[in-house]
Design a protein that fits this description.
Length: 391
Amino acid sequence: MFKQVWAVTSMNFKSVPARVASSSVIVIGIAGVVGVIVSIFGMTRSLSETLVDTGRTDRAIVLRAGADTEVASTLLVDAVATIKNAPGVARAPNGKPAASADMLVAVNLVRKQNGTRAGLTVRGIGPEASAVRPELKLVEGRMFRPGLREMIVGRSAQREFQGLEIGGRVALRDSQWTIVGVFETGGDAHESSLLADADTLLSAYSRTAVNSVTVLLESPAAFDEFKTALTTNPTLSVSVERELDYFQRQSERSSSILDIVTKFVAGIMALGALFAALNTMYTAVSTRVVEIATLRALGFGAGGVVVSVLVESLLLALLGAVLGAAVAWLLFGGNTISLGGGTSSLVFKMHVTPALLGVGIGWACAVGFLGGLFPAVRAARIPVATALRAT
């Protein structure tokens, strides 16, 4: 059996140079499918990882009851004081509650890459924000001063938008705010924003309510005590989530649309590649029908013919998969992606992982198998006498 498969497969590949144009249709089609699958799946997963990495189990976020996002939430000053002093909240080095009442606004800025305008989040934070988010590291310049119209910019946002160098000025509410520092948070979602003093920002926008309160808990186990104290307080109407759960929920919402687009586009391209493979393999079989019939007349079994055609189709698909994966890895691996544009943008790095390459190659093998299966069965079922009369 193996000798027969090897003999027929060798004959098939010796004839490939004579039909290189038709064989390249499979390779190029599969390469396109794999390239699209790897790049879009890579973008979706990198987006999810960026959002999830923003949250921690020992932090909790408090929103107005019924609000799904920070933007849709408002919390009055009296509520903020109660939240900060709830049981389970850790203490900052200065002895105050490790809690930050945050206010969010948006500013439109110009992207460096194409000159289009997009929204970027400006987050007003409290004085204990550094205790709440220890991953926030100032890497250039200095921290903004409370009471002054100053802000610091995340490294990811600075790479994507114009005018965010130290000394640059950002227009907010008919006033200019000066960039005085650059911070990093490990590439999470907060790094795609501008940070300013919450009280100064509230004053500039004439507001008396913040959007959310984020607290550092004494331990992950303190969450239940903290949540119970707030949700059972009759003076409050709030929802309490672990920060990790909140960002996982945001991740699922953000990536769901991309998942639908990915599967739709990949499905259409895979279908096109499948038809290309079917057409190519049917053509390859039809041009070698006499050779296949002669081999069968000499005693070669139908199984050897089927396997040899499948092997050729799979190898061509695998070649296309490797080509598509290599192009996706070279062109998109490590690239900076910016999504959004209405009121906020999320800037993150795209990672093309071995697991994603494996998914792309798996799709390619499936297309190659289906593309070779039916022509292979047809080749094996053609009556020998009928095929030989074709001469």
